[in-house]
Amino acid sequence: MKCPKADSPPKGRILIVEDERSLAHACRSILEEHGHHAEFCLTGREGRALLRRGDFDVVLLDLRLGDMDGMEILEEARRQNLRVCIVIMTAFSTVQNAVKAMKLGAFDYLTKPFTDDELILCVQRAVEKKRLVEENLRLKKELVDRYGFSNIVGENPKILEVFRQIEKVAPTDCTVLIHGEHGTGKELVARAIHAHSRRASQKFIAIDCSTLSPTLLESELFGHVKGAFTGATQDKPGIFQVASKGTLFLDDIANLNLETQGKLLRVLETREYKPVGSSSFRTTEARVISATNKDLRTLAAQGSFREDLYYRLNVFPIFLPPLRERKDDIPRLAYHFLRHFCRKTSKRIDGFTEDALEALVNHPWPGNVRQLKNAVERLVIMTDTPMVDLLTLLDHLETRRRWGSDPIPRTIQELRDFKKRLLIDHYERMEKLFLLKALEDQGGNISKAAQAVGMKRPNFSALMKRHGIPSPSRKRPAV
Predict the structure, then answer these.
(1) Which positions fall inside the Sigma-54 factor interaction domain (predicted)?
(2) Which end of the chain is more exposed for a tag (fewer CB within 10 A), N or C?
């Protein structure tokens, strides 16, 4: 009976390490007839040298070779973490040998004499396993590249601490709670944790707890059975079922109502949940990462968030600092986004002028990194010059202060400090824009610019110097 063949089975590179020439030659002939590339060698030392090259998908290894024990080669392959499937061949079949070989990483065990079909089936399974392992490694690498640390830009000590925490918690199954304002990158951190975890090849599912009604959210999380409510025409799996063995990211966790909080607590404590309308429980192995921009401890004290759930979620807290607390990272972020959107739009913009970069650093960024990213994308679209200058920047950046956000001064010193801050934040910036606009209107001619605005040239030049505006005849320093 001939071996059943799958549709277009993958072909592999096979190494046969066998000291009996006739058997080695026969194995090679059979494998090549089925489309594989096969080589053989007659000594263990030669086989070990060929194996180190890393060119093979599968190795057929005789346990008893003339010059060495095949187990030595198997042990070396494991020590060097060689990504190859090793199939043991031996005429001395014992349970002990089989168990030892499997513990050392052997893929399968062929007992001599074996048939052609047994050989082909075994090799085919090994090749398929090798391809599957390679595909999983490739997908994991893509995931790490996409959601790795390179996408969380920064060298501020606070963000470096976030990197350290991700590295520590990612390999575990620990529940994580990410704190941070809107736009600080909470989902990006959650995805980085997943990408560096043992679950990286499994699903990552994100759900925003603030966008769904309590009833719909419960159905999304736990699923429902047919007839559970009007419109439930069939069973629907919940996210806890779909994400089992993977990672479930619950954003804006503070928006869950108390009833749903209780059901979530049960899942975290027992790994059990009940679909809407069902009378039986199901289990899940999903890892939960949650995020919030609110103080859950305060909400728990006020009674709007379960205290027991807070402690169950807050096993490993990660705090993401707002952008205003890591201003030294703003230039790095700005250039990171500039390069990204230039590639995306096929535009060539070399960077930001010195005063434009200064304005970016001094901007309050209430929307944090997300707001900065959106602003840079807008600038890339609108800029037609090699550098983004201050005028272009301020045309597309909200610079007016929200007066209502400032507390009323309580002392004369606070009032003076407020006045000084206003002068720095608004008057001096406007004064600089005034000078730049005058120069632009007069083609960079300082004398004409001064005359046009009603100033003497020395006073105009002195203001330019105070604001660090170089003479148009000199080249502006590069950023």
Answers:
(1) 152-381
(2) N
CATH number of 13-140: 3.40.50.2300
Name the architecture of domain 327-466. Answer: Orthogonal Bundle (1.10)
Provide the 3-class DSSP secondary structure of residue 428. helix
**Range scoring the smallest mean pLDDT among 40-54, 141-155, 156-170, 378-392:** 141-155
Angle 414-420-421 (CA atoms, 0-180°, nearest 5)?
A: 90
Return d(Cα 380, Cα 375) in angstroms, integer. 9
- The model's confidence at residue 317, banded by pLDDT at 50, 70 and 90, is very high
Return all residues near 418 (Cβ < 8 A) that are at least 6 apart.
406, 409
* pLDDT beyond 50 at 371: yes
On the question of pLDDT at 82 being above 80, the answer is no
Task: Name 145's Cβ contacts closer than 8 Å, sequence gap at least 6.
Answer: none
pTM of the model: 0.60
DSSP state of 203: -
Burial class of residue 312, CB neighbours in 10 A (0-12, 13-18, 19+): middle
The 3-state DSSP class for residue 13 equals: strand
Reduce the secondary structure of 212-262 to three states and give it as a string: CCHHHHHHHHHEECCCCCCCCCCCEECHHHHCCCCEEEEECHHHCCHHHHH
Lowest-confidence pick of 10-24, 223-237, 315-329, 465-479: 465-479
CATH class of 148-321: alpha beta
Domain boundaries, the chain: 13-140, 148-321, 327-466
Which of 368, 279, 364, 390 lies closest to 323 in space, CA to CA?
368
Alpha helices for 223-362 (secondary structure H) = 239-242, 258-270, 296-302, 307-313, 330-345, 354-362
